Write the structure tokens for this entry.
Amino acid sequence: MRKEKPFKIGDKKFTARELRVKQIVTITDSLGKDAEISDIDMLFPDRLPSGALAMSLGMTGEELAEYAPSEIETMIDAVEEVNPTFAGLMQRLANLGRAALAVQKSKEQSAG
């Protein structure tokens, strides 16, 4: 049985649901393929991607964009709570990306 976390923002009720592996694969496959970065992803670069947030909450990206950053952060917290394995994977991928950029920058500075 998949995990769920009901929560409220003001008077509005939401339910964060654990994503299935095939949903996670769909999200990770879309990363870095010339995909447009959403405003939410720019505001929360070290958190789950907005596609995961939308999928877990059963919302669209356009619907998510109607909320304030503080409200979105509450949503992200709930989605990460029911998807800790995926959240950990995204954190590890972000760390690998930062490390790769640091190595590249170091090589460019050495060559310059």
About this structure: The longest strand covers residues 4-9.
